Structures are given as structure tokens and as C-alpha cells.
Amino acid sequence: MAHRRVLQTLIRLKTLTPLVQSLPRITQTQHFPPKLNVIFPNSTPINNTHFTITRHFSSNRSGDSEDYDDEDDEEEEMGESLDEDDVVSGFSGKREYTAEEKESEANAIGYKVVGPLERSDRVFKDYEPVFAVIQIGSHQFKVSNGDCVYAEKLKFCEVHDKIILNKVLMLGSPTQTLIGRPILPDATVHAVVEEHALDAKVIIFKKKRRKNYRRTKGHRQELTKIRITDIQGIEKPVAPVVPEKIKKAAKEKVEKDSWLSISIRNQMSAVEFSTYELRNRIIPRSMNHCGQG
């Protein structure tokens, strides 16, 4: 069979070669127009050479050229208008927000910028037994007066800006608890922006086995450090007022006890003083406890 196929191919080639040799040869040449010497009045001669080569594609139709011309004109007009706008407004890569846009986006996140912190402001107060559950973006925090919170970066506020966190979900104190549905409209949490920082790096590693595919990337989340200064919208318990006589009596008692312990220690050795402390402090308490039981 193999010999037969070889003989068939040889016969076929032998019959085709004279036909191919009898065909005329086709030569492709490109004719370019000659150089044109144009002489203008009152000017030097200029040599212009124009090469025009027309290309025809099988996918083009007769009406496509007009469409392409229209698209080119539109692109040129748009490019000119963009260039003019860039020159006039000083276009930069960052988007410029208006005051209304900034306020609306800040409200959507859950805060409002009041203004920069002044030296005369006394916003930091003593601790109060009140807590609040606030929402910043998609995260919720339980905070009290003086707490520090790291949230995702707040775009429209700078360091040392006073802000109001208006998405308060819950308020609590020793006397009452207020729960929002879902937000308490009259509750606000005041805070101060302390710094903008970056979180620790997180490594993202992807792999597809048996495909020689490995990708390693790192990410550091931008954060904003917020200090809580005040919680409003709930009744705060009033601290009991201690009279001056009680304060003075307690202070004299402490001084007397310290003087007595020093005088006794000077008269006793270390072992005797330790046994004395155990008798006066631990043994009476245990005896009283046993007596009560």
C-alpha cells in the first residue's frame, strides 16, 4: 500500500508541473508619484513628497468610511473641549467635591465635621458611667467617654478636627437604657480626630495547584484614630457630693494609721511586725466571717 501511494503522488506531480510552468508569471509593483517641486511667489522652493497608498479590507463596506470620519471628528472635538477645560480649571487626577457632596457622603458614613479644635476648647472631660453603640460605615463600636476607636479612613476630615457621630444605635447608663429603631435621632457622640494611620500589612496569597499559578499581594488598610469626648442624649447620674468633714476625717485616719504602723515597726523586728499585721488584719476578718456564718 505504501509503494502504491508513493507512485500515485509521483504521477500526479508529473502531470501538474507542465501546467504550472505554462502559466504566466504575475509581478506586483507599486507606482509612486514623482517628486513635486512647488514654487510659491516670494518664497523659497519647497520639495514635497507625498506617498499615497490605498488599503482595502474585505470587512469594510462602502458606507463605513463616512461613519469613521464622523467618529474621528467627534473625538477631535471632545479632545479640544477637554484640553480647554484642563487649561481653565487646572484639572488634576483627584476628584473635587462640593460642600453639599461632602456633607451628604459624610452623613451616609455616619459623621459630621464641626471644625478644627481650638486651643481654648476644653472638650476632654472626666470619665462618666455612660456608654453608646455607634455605627461608622459598616462597623459598630461600643464606646464611653475617653475611649479611642480605630475606624476606616474618614475622607473629609483632617487631624484635630471635631466631629459628631450621629448614627447612635444604643445608649446606656446605670439608671436607664435607650435602644434605637434602628437609630436614636436625639443622641449624638462627640469626638476628635487624632491621626490618620495604616493598619498592619495583610498578605493575600493565591494558588492553583498543578497550574504553576501563584500570586502574592499585600494590603494595608487606611485607618482614622478617633477619641470620644462626650455622649449626649441620655440622663447622666450625678456624682454624690462628699462633705468636707468626712474627707478630713478619712485623711486624719489614714495619717494616724501610717504613723502608728511606723512606730510599732521601729520597736519590733521584721518577723514580729509581720505576725502583728496578720493578727490585726487577717485573723479578725476571718473570725467575724465565721461568726456571721
Topology, please?
Blueprint: H1 2-22, E1 36-38, E2 46-48, H2 64-89, H3 99-109, E3 111-116, E4 131-136, E5 139-144, E6 148-152, E7 161-165, E8 168-172, E9 177-179, E10 188-198, E11 202-208, E12 213-219, E13 222-232, H4 244-267, H5 270-292
Antiparallel strand pairs: 1-2, 3-7, 4-5, 4-8, 6-13, 7-10, 8-9, 10-13, 11-12
Model description:
The chain has 293 residues and is an alpha+beta fold. It has five helices and 13 strands. The strands form four sheets. It has a five-stranded antiparallel beta sheet with strand order 3-7-10-13-6. The model is unreliable at 282-293 (pLDDT under 50).
Quick description:
This protein has helices at residues 2-22, 64-89, 99-109, 244-267, 270-292, and strands spanning 36-38, 46-48, 111-116, 131-136, 139-144, 148-152, 161-165, 168-172, 177-179, 188-198, 202-208, 213-219, 222-232. The protein has 293 residues and is α+β, with helices and mostly antiparallel strands.
